[in-house]
Amino acid sequence: MLTKDLVAASSKPLLLSILAGGESYGYEIIQKVRELSGGSIEWSDGMLYPVLHRLERDGLIESEWKEADTGRERKYYFISSDGRKALKTERRQWLAVHNSLCKLWKIKPVSI
Amino acid sequence: MAGRSQLPVQIMENQTRFDLNAAVENWRNELAVQPNLASDDRRELETHLRDAIAGFQQRDLNDEESFWLARKRVGQPQRLVEEFVKANPATVWRERIFWAAIILLIIRLWSGISSIAWAIFQTTVTTPYFLNKYHSVSPFPDWVRFYLPLPSNIDLYALLFSPSSRMVFNFLSLLPVLGIAWLLSRGRLNKGFSWTQFFFHSRRRFLFISATLFSFYLLLLVNSLLRYESHPNSPSLDLVIVVNLMSLLYPAILVALIAWLMPAQNRKTPKRA
Protein backbone atom coordinates (compact mmCIF):
# COMPACT_ATOMS: atom_id res chain seq x y z
CA MET A 1 0.00 0.00 0.00
CA LEU A 2 1.17 3.53 -0.84
CA THR A 3 1.49 6.17 1.84
CA LYS A 4 -1.10 8.95 1.91
CA ASP A 5 1.40 11.53 0.67
CA LEU A 6 2.43 9.42 -2.26
CA VAL A 7 -1.18 8.69 -3.20
CA ALA A 8 -1.87 12.42 -3.23
CA ALA A 9 1.23 13.28 -5.24
CA SER A 10 0.76 10.54 -7.83
CA SER A 11 -2.93 11.15 -8.42
CA LYS A 12 -2.33 13.99 -10.89
CA PRO A 13 0.01 12.13 -13.32
CA LEU A 14 -2.10 8.98 -13.01
CA LEU A 15 -5.36 10.77 -13.80
CA LEU A 16 -3.87 12.79 -16.65
CA SER A 17 -2.27 9.68 -18.16
CA ILE A 18 -5.51 7.69 -17.95
CA LEU A 19 -7.50 10.50 -19.55
CA ALA A 20 -4.83 10.99 -22.22
CA GLY A 21 -5.77 7.47 -23.30
CA GLY A 22 -9.41 8.50 -23.76
CA GLU A 23 -12.35 9.97 -21.88
CA SER A 24 -13.52 8.19 -18.75
CA TYR A 25 -15.70 8.53 -15.64
CA GLY A 26 -15.02 8.21 -11.92
CA TYR A 27 -15.89 4.59 -11.34
CA GLU A 28 -14.01 3.40 -14.42
CA ILE A 29 -10.93 5.42 -13.47
CA ILE A 30 -10.78 3.82 -10.02
CA GLN A 31 -11.15 0.34 -11.49
CA LYS A 32 -8.36 1.10 -13.95
CA VAL A 33 -5.99 2.34 -11.23
CA ARG A 34 -6.71 -0.72 -9.10
CA GLU A 35 -6.05 -2.97 -12.08
CA LEU A 36 -2.84 -1.16 -13.15
CA SER A 37 -1.29 -1.22 -9.70
CA GLY A 38 -2.37 -4.76 -8.92
CA GLY A 39 -4.24 -3.42 -5.91
CA SER A 40 -1.30 -1.58 -4.33
CA ILE A 41 -2.79 1.83 -5.18
CA GLU A 42 -6.17 1.88 -3.49
CA TRP A 43 -8.08 5.14 -4.00
CA SER A 44 -11.09 5.74 -1.84
CA ASP A 45 -13.96 6.31 -4.22
CA GLY A 46 -15.32 9.52 -2.78
CA MET A 47 -11.94 11.22 -2.63
CA LEU A 48 -11.34 10.85 -6.36
CA TYR A 49 -13.90 13.49 -7.30
CA PRO A 50 -12.35 16.38 -5.36
CA VAL A 51 -9.08 15.62 -7.17
CA LEU A 52 -10.83 15.53 -10.53
CA HIS A 53 -12.61 18.78 -9.77
CA ARG A 54 -9.37 20.44 -8.79
CA LEU A 55 -7.78 19.40 -12.10
CA GLU A 56 -10.85 20.68 -13.89
CA ARG A 57 -10.67 24.01 -12.11
CA ASP A 58 -7.02 24.27 -13.14
CA GLY A 59 -8.12 23.73 -16.75
CA LEU A 60 -6.19 20.49 -17.18
CA ILE A 61 -9.29 18.39 -17.77
CA GLU A 62 -12.85 19.09 -18.84
CA SER A 63 -16.11 17.31 -18.09
CA GLU A 64 -19.44 16.64 -19.71
CA TRP A 65 -22.60 14.73 -18.71
CA LYS A 66 -23.29 12.04 -21.26
CA GLU A 67 -25.67 9.14 -21.55
CA ALA A 68 -23.97 5.76 -21.27
CA ASP A 69 -25.16 2.68 -23.19
CA THR A 70 -27.03 1.59 -20.04
CA GLY A 71 -29.25 4.68 -20.48
CA ARG A 72 -27.98 6.30 -17.29
CA GLU A 73 -26.06 9.55 -17.42
CA ARG A 74 -22.47 9.79 -16.27
CA LYS A 75 -20.07 12.66 -15.96
CA TYR A 76 -17.23 11.99 -18.38
CA TYR A 77 -13.85 13.62 -18.03
CA PHE A 78 -11.40 14.29 -20.85
CA ILE A 79 -7.98 15.91 -21.05
CA SER A 80 -7.48 19.43 -22.39
CA SER A 81 -4.51 20.72 -24.36
CA ASP A 82 -3.18 22.36 -21.18
CA GLY A 83 -3.55 18.98 -19.51
CA ARG A 84 -1.41 17.34 -22.17
CA LYS A 85 1.30 19.93 -21.59
CA ALA A 86 1.09 19.40 -17.83
CA LEU A 87 1.32 15.65 -18.36
CA LYS A 88 4.60 16.08 -20.29
CA THR A 89 6.09 18.03 -17.37
CA GLU A 90 4.83 15.49 -14.85
CA ARG A 91 6.27 12.67 -16.92
CA ARG A 92 9.69 14.32 -17.04
CA GLN A 93 9.72 14.91 -13.28
CA TRP A 94 8.53 11.46 -12.25
CA LEU A 95 11.00 9.75 -14.57
CA ALA A 96 13.79 11.92 -13.16
CA VAL A 97 12.95 10.66 -9.67
CA HIS A 98 12.50 7.15 -10.96
CA ASN A 99 15.84 7.12 -12.77
CA SER A 100 17.75 8.52 -9.82
CA LEU A 101 16.36 5.77 -7.63
CA CYS A 102 17.09 3.18 -10.30
CA LYS A 103 20.72 4.23 -10.43
CA LEU A 104 21.00 4.03 -6.65
CA TRP A 105 19.35 0.63 -6.57
CA LYS A 106 21.29 -0.53 -9.64
CA ILE A 107 18.20 -1.20 -11.77
CA LYS A 108 18.15 -0.35 -15.47
CA PRO A 109 16.81 3.24 -15.90
CA VAL A 110 14.14 4.28 -18.40
CA SER A 111 14.83 6.71 -21.24
CA ILE A 112 13.08 10.06 -20.71
CA MET B 1 -48.15 -29.78 -6.00
CA ALA B 2 -44.64 -28.42 -6.11
CA GLY B 3 -45.96 -25.02 -7.17
CA ARG B 4 -48.37 -24.89 -4.25
CA SER B 5 -45.73 -25.66 -1.65
CA GLN B 6 -43.39 -23.02 -3.09
CA LEU B 7 -45.95 -20.26 -2.90
CA PRO B 8 -45.65 -19.35 0.81
CA VAL B 9 -41.88 -19.31 0.54
CA GLN B 10 -42.07 -16.86 -2.35
CA ILE B 11 -44.32 -14.57 -0.36
CA MET B 12 -41.94 -14.68 2.58
CA GLU B 13 -39.10 -13.75 0.27
CA ASN B 14 -41.01 -10.82 -1.18
CA GLN B 15 -41.76 -9.47 2.24
CA THR B 16 -38.16 -9.39 3.36
CA ARG B 17 -36.70 -8.46 -0.01
CA PHE B 18 -34.22 -5.61 0.07
CA ASP B 19 -35.49 -2.65 -1.94
CA LEU B 20 -32.44 -1.36 -3.76
CA ASN B 21 -34.11 1.73 -5.19
CA ALA B 22 -35.44 2.72 -1.79
CA ALA B 23 -31.99 2.24 -0.27
CA VAL B 24 -30.39 4.46 -2.93
CA GLU B 25 -33.16 7.00 -2.40
CA ASN B 26 -32.40 7.01 1.34
CA TRP B 27 -28.72 7.44 0.69
CA ARG B 28 -29.47 10.35 -1.64
CA ASN B 29 -31.60 12.02 1.04
CA GLU B 30 -28.81 11.57 3.55
CA LEU B 31 -26.48 13.34 1.15
CA ALA B 32 -29.05 16.05 0.41
CA VAL B 33 -28.98 17.06 4.09
CA GLN B 34 -25.37 18.17 3.66
CA PRO B 35 -25.74 21.85 2.83
CA ASN B 36 -22.34 22.38 1.28
CA LEU B 37 -22.58 19.93 -1.58
CA ALA B 38 -23.39 21.27 -5.04
CA SER B 39 -26.17 19.43 -6.85
CA ASP B 40 -23.83 18.43 -9.65
CA ASP B 41 -21.48 16.77 -7.15
CA ARG B 42 -24.41 14.97 -5.57
CA ARG B 43 -25.51 13.68 -8.93
CA GLU B 44 -22.00 12.53 -9.74
CA LEU B 45 -21.68 10.65 -6.45
CA GLU B 46 -25.00 8.95 -7.07
CA THR B 47 -23.97 7.71 -10.51
CA HIS B 48 -20.80 6.43 -8.87
CA LEU B 49 -22.77 4.59 -6.19
CA ARG B 50 -24.96 3.00 -8.84
CA ASP B 51 -21.92 1.96 -10.88
CA ALA B 52 -20.30 0.47 -7.79
CA ILE B 53 -23.52 -1.45 -6.95
CA ALA B 54 -23.68 -2.78 -10.51
CA GLY B 55 -20.02 -3.82 -10.22
CA PHE B 56 -20.68 -5.86 -7.07
CA GLN B 57 -23.83 -7.38 -8.55
CA GLN B 58 -21.77 -8.64 -11.48
CA ARG B 59 -19.64 -10.48 -8.95
CA ASP B 60 -22.75 -12.41 -7.89
CA LEU B 61 -23.43 -10.48 -4.70
CA ASN B 62 -27.09 -9.83 -3.91
CA ASP B 63 -28.68 -6.37 -3.91
CA GLU B 64 -28.27 -5.77 -0.20
CA GLU B 65 -24.61 -6.78 -0.03
CA SER B 66 -23.83 -4.78 -3.17
CA PHE B 67 -25.49 -1.69 -1.77
CA TRP B 68 -23.71 -1.77 1.58
CA LEU B 69 -20.31 -2.47 0.06
CA ALA B 70 -20.76 0.31 -2.52
CA ARG B 71 -21.91 2.69 0.20
CA LYS B 72 -18.86 1.91 2.26
CA ARG B 73 -16.60 2.46 -0.76
CA VAL B 74 -18.04 5.87 -1.56
CA GLY B 75 -17.51 6.99 2.01
CA GLN B 76 -19.14 8.92 4.85
CA PRO B 77 -21.24 11.85 3.57
CA GLN B 78 -19.72 14.19 6.16
CA ARG B 79 -16.12 13.40 5.15
CA LEU B 80 -17.00 13.52 1.46
CA VAL B 81 -18.43 16.99 1.71
CA GLU B 82 -15.35 18.28 3.53
CA GLU B 83 -13.14 17.08 0.69
CA PHE B 84 -15.44 18.45 -1.99
CA VAL B 85 -15.55 21.86 -0.39
CA LYS B 86 -11.77 21.90 -0.04
CA ALA B 87 -11.43 21.21 -3.76
CA ASN B 88 -13.81 23.92 -4.86
CA PRO B 89 -14.88 26.35 -2.15
CA ALA B 90 -16.51 28.82 -4.55
CA THR B 91 -18.88 26.33 -6.17
CA VAL B 92 -21.23 26.14 -3.24
CA TRP B 93 -21.68 29.89 -3.03
CA ARG B 94 -21.98 30.19 -6.76
CA GLU B 95 -24.84 27.70 -6.64
CA ARG B 96 -26.53 29.36 -3.67
CA ILE B 97 -26.54 32.77 -5.34
CA PHE B 98 -27.71 31.19 -8.60
CA TRP B 99 -30.72 29.64 -6.87
CA ALA B 100 -31.46 32.77 -4.86
CA ALA B 101 -31.56 34.74 -8.13
CA ILE B 102 -33.83 32.14 -9.73
CA ILE B 103 -36.21 32.19 -6.76
CA LEU B 104 -36.34 36.00 -6.82
CA LEU B 105 -36.98 35.98 -10.56
CA ILE B 106 -39.77 33.40 -10.19
CA ILE B 107 -41.39 35.56 -7.52
CA ARG B 108 -41.04 38.64 -9.73
CA LEU B 109 -42.59 36.82 -12.68
CA TRP B 110 -45.32 35.30 -10.56
CA SER B 111 -46.38 38.64 -9.16
CA GLY B 112 -45.75 40.27 -12.54
CA ILE B 113 -48.40 38.06 -14.13
CA SER B 114 -51.04 40.05 -12.27
CA SER B 115 -49.83 43.39 -13.60
CA ILE B 116 -49.63 41.99 -17.12
CA ALA B 117 -53.13 40.56 -16.84
CA TRP B 118 -54.12 43.94 -15.49
CA ALA B 119 -52.57 45.74 -18.45
CA ILE B 120 -54.29 43.45 -20.95
CA PHE B 121 -57.70 43.82 -19.37
CA GLN B 122 -57.30 47.54 -18.90
CA THR B 123 -56.83 47.96 -22.61
CA THR B 124 -59.88 45.89 -23.47
CA VAL B 125 -62.42 46.17 -20.68
CA THR B 126 -63.21 49.00 -18.31
CA THR B 127 -62.00 48.26 -14.78
CA PRO B 128 -65.12 48.02 -12.62
CA TYR B 129 -66.83 45.97 -15.23
CA PHE B 130 -63.90 43.57 -15.36
CA LEU B 131 -63.66 43.21 -11.60
CA ASN B 132 -67.35 42.50 -11.21
CA LYS B 133 -67.24 40.09 -14.06
CA TYR B 134 -64.14 38.44 -12.64
CA HIS B 135 -65.60 37.91 -9.20
CA SER B 136 -68.78 36.45 -10.56
CA VAL B 137 -67.16 34.01 -12.98
CA SER B 138 -64.10 33.01 -10.92
CA PRO B 139 -63.99 29.22 -10.79
CA PHE B 140 -61.73 29.13 -7.72
CA PRO B 141 -62.72 29.21 -4.05
CA ASP B 142 -61.23 32.10 -2.06
CA TRP B 143 -58.43 30.10 -0.43
CA VAL B 144 -57.15 28.99 -3.85
CA ARG B 145 -57.46 32.48 -5.30
CA PHE B 146 -55.32 33.74 -2.46
CA TYR B 147 -52.33 31.83 -3.84
CA LEU B 148 -52.88 32.82 -7.46
CA PRO B 149 -51.41 35.97 -8.98
CA LEU B 150 -54.75 37.49 -9.90
CA PRO B 151 -55.58 41.20 -10.13
CA SER B 152 -58.49 40.87 -7.72
CA ASN B 153 -56.08 40.04 -4.88
CA ILE B 154 -54.31 43.35 -5.16
CA ASP B 155 -57.55 45.30 -4.94
CA LEU B 156 -58.69 43.18 -2.05
CA TYR B 157 -55.54 43.97 -0.07
CA ALA B 158 -55.67 47.61 -1.01
CA LEU B 159 -59.21 47.87 0.29
CA LEU B 160 -58.95 45.77 3.43
CA PHE B 161 -55.45 46.06 4.86
CA SER B 162 -52.78 48.54 5.82
CA PRO B 163 -49.61 48.54 3.70
CA SER B 164 -47.61 46.56 6.29
CA SER B 165 -50.10 43.74 6.67
CA ARG B 166 -50.47 43.77 2.90
CA MET B 167 -46.80 42.86 2.73
CA VAL B 168 -47.34 39.96 5.11
CA PHE B 169 -50.23 38.75 2.99
CA ASN B 170 -48.20 39.08 -0.17
CA PHE B 171 -45.50 36.95 1.41
CA LEU B 172 -48.00 34.33 2.58
CA SER B 173 -49.50 34.11 -0.88
CA LEU B 174 -46.00 33.45 -2.26
CA LEU B 175 -45.34 30.53 0.12
CA PRO B 176 -46.28 27.74 -2.33
CA VAL B 177 -44.03 29.25 -5.01
CA LEU B 178 -41.20 29.59 -2.50
CA GLY B 179 -41.70 26.00 -1.38
CA ILE B 180 -41.54 24.64 -4.91
CA ALA B 181 -38.45 26.72 -5.70
CA TRP B 182 -36.73 25.51 -2.53
CA LEU B 183 -37.48 21.85 -3.26
CA LEU B 184 -36.22 22.31 -6.82
CA SER B 185 -32.98 23.85 -5.58
CA ARG B 186 -32.41 20.87 -3.26
CA GLY B 187 -32.89 18.50 -6.20
CA ARG B 188 -35.96 16.88 -4.63
CA LEU B 189 -38.48 17.70 -7.35
CA ASN B 190 -36.72 16.65 -10.50
CA LYS B 191 -39.41 14.32 -11.79
CA GLY B 192 -42.27 16.67 -12.63
CA PHE B 193 -40.07 19.62 -13.46
CA SER B 194 -37.64 18.32 -16.06
CA TRP B 195 -39.32 20.61 -18.59
CA THR B 196 -37.71 23.57 -16.84
CA GLN B 197 -34.38 22.37 -18.25
CA PHE B 198 -35.65 23.62 -21.59
CA PHE B 199 -35.05 27.20 -20.44
CA PHE B 200 -31.60 26.44 -19.07
CA HIS B 201 -30.31 24.41 -21.99
CA SER B 202 -27.79 27.08 -22.89
CA ARG B 203 -26.98 30.64 -21.99
CA ARG B 204 -28.12 31.81 -25.38
CA ARG B 205 -31.52 30.15 -25.08
CA PHE B 206 -32.08 31.49 -21.58
CA LEU B 207 -31.21 35.03 -22.66
CA PHE B 208 -33.35 34.74 -25.81
CA ILE B 209 -36.43 33.60 -23.88
CA SER B 210 -35.90 36.36 -21.32
CA ALA B 211 -35.52 38.96 -24.06
CA THR B 212 -38.75 37.74 -25.67
CA LEU B 213 -40.61 38.10 -22.37
CA PHE B 214 -39.14 41.55 -21.86
CA SER B 215 -40.17 42.76 -25.30
CA PHE B 216 -43.66 41.34 -24.79
CA TYR B 217 -43.92 43.28 -21.57
CA LEU B 218 -42.59 46.42 -23.26
CA LEU B 219 -45.24 46.11 -25.97
CA LEU B 220 -47.94 45.95 -23.32
CA LEU B 221 -46.37 48.90 -21.60
CA VAL B 222 -46.28 51.00 -24.76
CA ASN B 223 -49.84 49.99 -25.47
CA SER B 224 -51.10 51.12 -22.06
CA LEU B 225 -48.97 54.29 -22.15
CA LEU B 226 -50.53 55.32 -25.44
CA ARG B 227 -53.90 55.32 -23.71
CA TYR B 228 -52.52 56.99 -20.61
CA GLU B 229 -52.58 60.60 -21.82
CA SER B 230 -56.30 60.90 -21.45
CA HIS B 231 -56.24 61.08 -17.62
CA PRO B 232 -55.80 64.66 -16.34
CA ASN B 233 -55.11 64.33 -12.56
CA SER B 234 -52.38 61.66 -12.58
CA PRO B 235 -48.56 61.70 -12.66
CA SER B 236 -46.88 62.94 -15.81
CA LEU B 237 -46.25 60.57 -18.66
CA ASP B 238 -42.48 60.94 -18.32
CA LEU B 239 -42.60 59.85 -14.71
CA VAL B 240 -44.73 56.82 -15.52
CA ILE B 241 -42.32 55.80 -18.28
CA VAL B 242 -39.30 56.15 -15.99
CA VAL B 243 -40.95 54.22 -13.13
CA ASN B 244 -41.95 51.40 -15.45
CA LEU B 245 -38.52 51.16 -17.03
CA MET B 246 -36.92 51.16 -13.57
CA SER B 247 -39.16 48.28 -12.55
CA LEU B 248 -37.68 46.34 -15.48
CA LEU B 249 -34.17 46.92 -14.20
CA TYR B 250 -34.52 44.52 -11.26
CA PRO B 251 -35.58 41.44 -13.28
CA ALA B 252 -32.98 42.37 -15.92
CA ILE B 253 -30.22 42.28 -13.30
CA LEU B 254 -31.52 38.91 -12.06
CA VAL B 255 -31.53 37.50 -15.60
CA ALA B 256 -27.96 38.69 -16.15
CA LEU B 257 -26.87 37.17 -12.83
CA ILE B 258 -28.48 33.82 -13.61
CA ALA B 259 -26.96 33.68 -17.10
CA TRP B 260 -23.55 34.46 -15.64
CA LEU B 261 -23.79 31.80 -12.91
CA MET B 262 -25.34 29.09 -15.06
CA PRO B 263 -23.73 25.68 -14.33
CA ALA B 264 -21.05 24.73 -16.81
CA GLN B 265 -22.61 21.46 -17.92
CA ASN B 266 -25.64 23.29 -19.22
CA ARG B 267 -23.58 25.53 -21.41
CA LYS B 268 -22.34 24.50 -24.79
CA THR B 269 -19.82 21.71 -24.35
CA PRO B 270 -16.24 22.87 -24.75
CA LYS B 271 -14.05 21.76 -27.62
CA ARG B 272 -11.99 18.72 -26.88
CA ALA B 273 -8.23 18.80 -26.94
Total number of beta strands of chain B:
0
> How would a textbook summarize the main sheet of chain A?
3 strands, antiparallel
Low-confidence stretches of chain A: none
**At the first level of CATH, what is the class of the domain at 4-80 in chain A?**
Mainly Alpha
Strand and helix order of chain A: HEHHEEH
Strand content of the residues of chain A, in percent?
5-15%
Shape verdict of chain A:
globular
Arrangement of strands in the largest sheet of chain A: 1-3-2
Terminal-residue CA separation of chain B: 66 Å
CATH architecture of the domain at 4-80 in chain A: Orthogonal Bundle
Which sequence of SSEs, written as H and E, runs from N to C of chain B?
Answer: HHHHHHHHHHHH
Oligomer: heterodimer
- Report the mean per-residue pLDDT of chain A as an integer: 88
Q: Report Rg of chain A.
A: 15 Å
Low-confidence stretches of chain B: 1-15, 265-273
The number of helical segments of chain A is 4
Fill in the CATH topology of the domain at 4-80 in chain A: Arc Repressor Mutant, subunit A
Average pLDDT metric of chain B: 72
